[in-house]
Amino acid sequence: MKREIAIGLFFALALPAVALIANQMGETFYISLVTRIAILALAATGLNLVLGLGGMVSFGHAAFFGIGGYVAGILASHASDGTMIFNWFSGSDQMLVIWPVAMLVAGLIALPIGIISLRTSGVYFIMITLAFAQMIYYFAISWPAYGGEDGLSLAMRNNFPGVNTLKPLSFFLIAYAVLMVVLFLFSRFRNSRFGAALEGARQNELRLSSVGIAPLRIRLVAFVLSAMITALAGALFVDLNRFVSPSMFSWHMSGELIVLIILGGTGRLFGPLIGAVLYVLFEFALGGMVEHWQLFFGLILLGVVMFARGGIIGLFAGKLRHG
């Protein structure tokens, strides 16, 4: 456990170190790169809640990532041009308003999806979550009011009190702070009674039911919380790029989040962060040399799956012990 924490802290501290050095050198591209890592790690941490702790392989979490993005984009767009949303709300360009709205909308949509999906398991759960994500994806494409398949551009990055979010380092620090808070909450959640019940539902549903705990209810709460965290990451992702499009709902995005978790370590606290670091670095390094860099990355991922079943953390820190 100490070795796992040391490895995780090394990667966690490396991000602000790289951002500060890049800022001193005037290399804003690298600041944007570590910001993207932080946001992807945040989204994957949300998925890690259900995949790592609950054993639920959701192939539809891109839906919540995209919902968070579209909520941020729509609110900011209406705030910019002064128009009303459904004739009752004028939108907002304040992150502290956008984030809770994005999380609330994602949670409300995740609730019925979870009620339906969680009555299945295995490949059926994978396929039904994928189906819901694709439904939302095609809805976004056919929504011309907000760009349809062309997406929606933001003129300015949304605001945060007392911070100039247009400065790359300032926005990185916001995204990084949110990631650290969510990782802390994930740690507390994993070590709580609810976290133990969620892991119990993964290991033996009948035994959990015999002590009076409903596995479906436990999983549903975890699914909704997971969706809300992923939506928060989606809102930050849109601010990073100042653009939102239906590609955020794509099944490729869901697969990418799963890959981050597997690469770093399923169920590990810092697994999504390490996975995001390695994924973005491979994309940056290999993408600059070869066009189809995913082929080589796939070989690396295959090696991790075959020879490091606990991900990169498991390779160096040993097997994960469940409480």
Automatic annotation (TrEMBL):
Its main location: membrane. The chain crosses the membrane at residues 29-51, 58-76, 96-116, 123-146, 166-186, 216-237, 257-282, 294-317. It comes from the Bacteria. It is a multi-pass membrane protein. Keywords: Cell membrane, Membrane, Transmembrane, Transmembrane helix. The keyword Cell membrane applies. It is found in: Cell membrane. This is Branched-chain amino acid ABC transporter permease. It comes from Pseudochrobactrum kiredjianiae.
